[in-house]
Design goal:
The chain has 345 residues and is α/β, with parallel strands linked by helices. The chain has a domain of 202 residues: Rossmann fold (3-Layer(aba) Sandwich), CATH 3.40.50. 38% of the residues lie in helices and 15% in strands. It has twelve helices and 13 strands. The strands form four sheets. A seven-stranded parallel β-sheet has the order 3-2-1-4-5-6-11, with helices on both faces. The chain has a two-stranded parallel ribbon with strand order 7-10. Helix 1 packs across helix 7, helix 4 runs parallel beside helix 5 and helix 6 packs across helix 8. The longest helix has 20 residues. The radius of gyration is 20 Å and the shape is globular. It starts with a strand and ends with a helix. The C terminus is likely disordered.
């Protein structure tokens, strides 16, 4: 069956806005479920896109909105939990990560079964594993296992989940799972965050400076999702998505400083100083820069074992070809030049 109608959860987020735009450009009908419709204002203008305000954690709402769709894409994810507590205890699995990364995929699978939808694309993450010390990676790993178990192509039973959530058998979904490294692009929460810190401080103490990443461009992640929709070869597959080059965190921060013209002293912190910095930042009010759970997650390299998946007939963009354009555009000097140009001076 040709896929024409897609329901997307998380469509108003960073990856979601790029994916929805690509799908709309291909003439596909897209339904975006958002808890606040105004968060997706830019998507409402696209001619084939319908934005619906919905509670994605209400299974009956999911069933209603999935009916008539050919595919469902789940992009919903969080990096931090709203509560502060002992992230190193098993009970940490019972917070926001549990609801978003485990219970929501379970509800999506059940709702798809009730609505008669068989194609599911699911966003996981590199490093996702039920035995990870990071609550984020644990929850992502369990959610990923639930999705794979619902696939008609599921072969291997991973017995280290036996004491976790109950598996969901018999749905026969055509599932594709994506596990990207850190995603960069205009509006990202990674490189842009470090640009802000480098603008604000002359010296930057850096936790987990040796952590390794293979940043992948948001447009490439979105295209991999879009290209998979109608491709039977991707059914039952899990794809690690990485950019063409591996960097340490210190190299990435240094590169951002070079791009924005803020050459700063970067002080790599040892293991315990990294932990204490993460612990202190965890209690910072407002947007979290880092938590102890992030510290644990960065203990695992965020890189791919192989190259770009052969299933996709394009190559990922290099960080150096994309990042300068949007990082420089957010500097005070660039804003001043934009003001002058707009004022026709």
């Amino acid at each position: 069956m040709k896929i024409q109608r897609i329901c997307i959860l998380g469509g108003s987020g960073f990856v979601g806005t790029h994916l929805v735009s690509q799908l709309a450009a291909r003439g596909l009908q897209v339904r975006v479920l958002s808890h606040r419709r105004e968060m997706a204002k830019e998507l409402i203008l696209l001619p084939t896109v319908e934005v619906i305000e919905a509670d994605v954690h209400d299974q009956q709402e999911l069933i209603r909105h999935f009916r008539g769709m050919d595919a469902v894409i789940n992009l919903v994810g969080i990096l931090h939990e709203s509560r502060v507590g002992r992230v190193d205890l098993p009970s940490a699995r019972r917070g926001d990560f549990q609801q978003v990364h485990i219970e929501l995929p379970r509800k999506i699978i059940h709702a798809m079964g009730e609505a008669g939808v068989h194609r599911l694309l699911h966003m996981s993450a590199l490093g996702a594993h039920a035995n990870s010390r990071s609550a984020y990676q644990r929850s992502k790993g369990i959610g990923e296992a639930l999705v794979r178990e619902a696939s008609r192509h599921h072969i291997e039973h991973e017995n280290w989940y036996l004491n976790g959530p109950k598996f969901i058998h018999g749905y026969g979904l055509d599932v594709t799972v994506f596990r990207p490294s850190v995603i960069f692009g205009r509006g990202d929460s990674f490189l842009s965050m470090f640009a802000g810190l480098l603008n604000a401080f002359p010296v930057l103490p850096l936790a987990n400076a040796g952590a390794r990443f293979a940043p992948v461009h948001v447009e490439d992640v979105a295209r991999a999702f879009a290209d998979s929709l109608d491709n039977p070869a991707t059914f039952g597959q899990t794809y690690d998505l990485c950019g063409p080059k591996v960097y340490s965190l210190q190299e990435l921060v240094g590169y951002v400083g070079d791009v924005i013209g803020k050459k700063r002293s970067i002080i790599p912190l040892g293991h315990w100083m990294s932990y204490f910095q993460a612990w202190a930042l965890e209690f910072k009010p407002g947007k979290k820069l880092m938590t102890r759970d992030n510290f644990y997650a960065m203990g695992t390299d965020n890189v791919c074992a192989g190259g770009w998946p052969a299933a996709f007939d394009f190559q990922p963009a290099a960080l150096e070809a994309i990042a300068p354009e949007y990082l420089r555009a957010d500097t005070p000097r660039a804003r001043y030049e934009d003001y002058r140009e707009n004022a026709r001076r």
